[in-house]
């Protein structure tokens, strides 16, 4: 029996790699003759780098860059085993968890460090990028990243603006002619499941600004700043970009990446292509996937739904194992043979997180025993 295990992370508890290995251990103990393969998944947010490196192989490159508050931080990017492709997880550079709760203010944060990572990789000869968007503390529209790549943004005095959200409204002149010459030769795939445009009530500032610490007044100011900035950039490039789905991802970093020729794709799709998931599922009898909580929204393009659709394409059957099952989970039977919550009895969120490994293992053992019995 061929089994592919392709889960998302249980956010706040277990990484997708950890989830996959725990399920694998349970299945191997109950079904020692089964052919079991683990392919951790992600949607472009936290865990993207670890997930791809585990599935494909490669190495991490450590470097010092500018953090979200302008301070210097240590981070890393991945180089895949093909020795051609660089993976950048922006959450590891400008992620919200890097900033203490009382210091979160997207008027003052920057994506400059993301551009520095790209320049570092370019100098090493790499021209293919996978960039995972998600979990950012920024709302600068990619201004910082673009400045790090050499693009010029000047204020009314002819001075370079600071690479932060508060500077967006101060920009008077934009020059893409100063960009690092190798940037436009790159192939850049952006992994993101965020479909929001850059500006407006469904844009980066209004939808995601508050969770990054923005007040109501700052949200309005940031949105106006992004609209002003986008107008100047689009005039400079003679392109209309701000309404492209995903331009508002990561505080508008999606927009910034679009200006240098990047393509924004489904995070699940990018990860599946990078890890060769489809080829591995082709011969699978069963596919196991999961996430922290599953409900009716899982069907709206989340990792487990993507995996289930891919499995159905090859007549493989999919089982869902999640931390919990929420509102409308019954709708999930459209795509999954069975849906399971690992929770045992009434538990607080704290207890559930602390015991996630134990309960996941028990649940996976029970499912493996059923599959073993049915195969006999």
From TrEMBL:
This is Glycerate kinase. Belongs to the glycerate kinase type-1 family. It holds the Pfam family Gly_kinase. NCBIfam families: glycerate kinase. It comes from Thermoflavimicrobium daqui. It comes from the Bacteria. Keywords: Kinase, Transferase. The keyword Ion transport does not apply. The lineage of its organism: Bacteria, Bacillati, Bacillota, Bacilli, Bacillales.
């Amino acid at each position: 029996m061929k089994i592919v295990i392709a889960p998302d992370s249980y956010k706040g508890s277990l990484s997708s790699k950890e989830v996959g290995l725990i399920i694998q251990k349970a299945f191997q103990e109950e079904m020692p003759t089964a052919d079991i393969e683990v392919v951790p998944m992600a949607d472009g947010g936290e865990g993207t780098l670890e997930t791809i490196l585990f599935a494909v192989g490669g190495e991490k490159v450590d470097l010092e860059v500018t953090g979200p508050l302008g301070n210097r931080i240590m981070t890393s990017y991945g180089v895949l085993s093909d020795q051609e492709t660089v993976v950048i997880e922006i959450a590891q550079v400008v992620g919200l968890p890097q900033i203490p709760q009382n210091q979160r203010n997207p008027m003052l944060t920057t994506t400059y460090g993301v551009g520095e990572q790209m320049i570092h990789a370019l100098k090493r000869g790499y021209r293919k990028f996978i960039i995972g968007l998600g979990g950012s503390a920024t709302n600068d529209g990619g201004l910082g990243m673009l400045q790090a790549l050499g693009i010029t943004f000047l204020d009314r005095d002819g001075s370079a603006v600071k690479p932060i959200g508060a500077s967006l409204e101060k920009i008077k002149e934009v020059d893409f002619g100063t960009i690092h010459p190798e940037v436009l030769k790159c192939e850049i795939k952006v992994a993101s499941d965020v479909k929001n445009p850059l500006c407006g009530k469904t844009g980066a500032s209004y939808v995601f600004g508050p969770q990054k610490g923005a007040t109501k007044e700052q949200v309005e100011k940031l949105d106006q700043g992004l609209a002003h900035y986008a107008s100047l950039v689009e005039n400079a490039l003679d392109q209309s970009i701000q309404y492209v789905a995903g331009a508002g991802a990561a505080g508008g970093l999606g927009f910034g990446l679009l200006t240098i020729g990047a393509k924004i794709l489904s995070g699940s799709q990018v990860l599946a292509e990078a890890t060769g998931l489809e080829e591995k599922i082709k011969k699978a009898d069963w596919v196991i996937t999961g996430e922290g909580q599953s409900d009716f929204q899982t069907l709206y393009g989340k990792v487990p739904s993507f995996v289930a659709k891919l499995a159905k394409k090859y007549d493989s059957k999919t089982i869902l194992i999640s931390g919990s099952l929420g509102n409308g989970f019954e709708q999930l039977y459209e795509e999954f043979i069975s849906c399971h919550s690992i929770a045992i009895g009434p538990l607080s969120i704290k207890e559930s997180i602390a015991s996630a490994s134990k309960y996941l293992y028990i649940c996976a053992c029970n499912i493996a025993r059923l599959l073993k019995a049915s195969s006999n």
